Amino acid sequence: ARRLVLLPTENPACVLNLRYYVTVLTVVLGGSAQFYSYGVVNPAQRLIMDWINQTYYERTGDTMGVTELNLFWSFVVSSIAVGAIVGALLTRVIAERCGRRNGLILNGAVNVIGAVLELLAKPTRSPELLLVGRFVLGINMGLTSGLCPMYLMEITPCRSRGVAGTLHQVAVAFSDWFSLLIGLPEVLGSVDLWPFAFAFPGLFAMLLVLVLPFSPESPKYLMSTRKDRMASMDACRSLVGNEEAQHMYEELMREHIQEQNENPATFRELFTSPSLRVPLLAAGLVMLAQQFTGCTAVFAYSTDMFVNAKLDESTARFATLAIGIAYFIFTCSAPLLIERVGRRPLLLFQLSACFVALLVLTVFTGLQTYSKVSWASYGTIGALVVYMCVYGVGSPIPWMITGELFSQRFRSTAVTVTVFIAWFLAFLTSTAYLPFSQLVGVSFSYLPFLGGLLVSTIVMFFLLPETRHRAPSAIIEEVRERSSSLAMGRPWEAVRPTSRQEMQRLIEHSDEHSSHYSSMDNVNQAVDNRY
């Protein structure tokens, strides 16, 4: 019998196979880009509101009032967030029972169904069908939020996972500006063609259904959940070169050996285990801080914000497209910055810069509204552009940091919780923003975001450690020490690394391969069983 001896090796150059690139491209376009559905309503808002009003006039002989129409439109926008909450709650079940890859294939089929419902809304003269279709697409987006980053990071070698994790958000940024382009009346956002603009993501979803079955399942899922070491090794080899496959398999074996005697994680254990409370709190607060940036309101209502800045509707739509492109360009810089600068500094920069941009936006909007200063509209536009740029730089971090805070056993459960938090807050924001803005005025509508951002930035500064290239156990230990310092009223100790942390980082940096030797016998035994 053949015997493959897995010996400790120096870090080889990371060689990725063609199948890996095809898989990543398929997941990014067919899965992550489905956030298109959230932004496509932005440029088409006035057009579809008129269609809804006209439809109800034909049914009842009377039109809706402004408040009633705004409330109905808020439900059209937020219905996708309601569906995303359902999808988020299903993430753990789908990821563990179907697998990461098969879950994405199933998710693609869900997206196609939602796209068909969107396509039929106008011919059947049914705004309700539009709501149902966006709800179904929301389920797709909720599942996408958890499954795509999880699958991308689990099929990628350890040294490249930071970049792989950001690809999801880069695709989200691409789909955002692309939806703004497709939604223009000059493209597919006209009176006759807007159903095709809403159903467009169904074409991308077909990639998941048709191409992804030929891609491998996540090696981590095969190893830790299915307990199939042979299939895990085969999956590694189909994704990366032979040397890197050996190194990747050894990493999986070490993690699997640590967890093989443990039962599958449950939500109850996640919430009640003392050892998990701190990392769960940290992951939840990062996602909460991201929502306090006001991104949901800006993505859904930026065209309306530009109209309030005294731009005509046509110019406002193109201005919305411009800030979408700016957001995409700056998000593309995240894969480079996130490994060089680190997660913590980049997130703190994003939160503080968004706070400044929203504060400036509030001031200029107030000057324009209450003091009738004509030039303040230029300041409003500039503040929105700056906001989208700085938001894009750190936008991938909340979606990937949960995977770095938890081991494989708890990862899918924790991701489900944090994605639920994100979409629940997105639902509240998208539902309440327009009526709230109408009640208090546009300039005061940003105050809740400013207050939340200020508190979130301070908490993240003291609580969140750097997670780059660190084991979950080391990250969790530092989070605990930081939270203990805060609880004792010594915040200055939370941001000052202890001697033990400094020593641990030095060891991890200077001897990152030494742990290979501890599990060689187990790994070689596994390979013996394979052959």
TrEMBL record:
The chain crosses the membrane at residues 20-41, 71-91, 103-121, 133-152, 164-184, 196-214, 278-301, 321-338, 345-367, 373-393, 414-434, 446-464. Belongs to the major facilitator superfamily. Sugar transporter (TC 2.A.1.1) family. It is a multi-pass membrane protein. Keywords: Membrane, Transmembrane, Transmembrane helix, Transport. The keyword Transmembrane helix applies. GO terms for cellular component: membrane. Pfam families: Sugar_tr (PF00083). It is found in: Membrane. This is Major facilitator superfamily (MFS) profile domain-containing protein. Its main location: membrane. GO terms for molecular function: hexose transmembrane transporter activity. Coiled coil: none annotated. NCBIfam families: SP (TIGR00879). It comes from the Eukaryota.
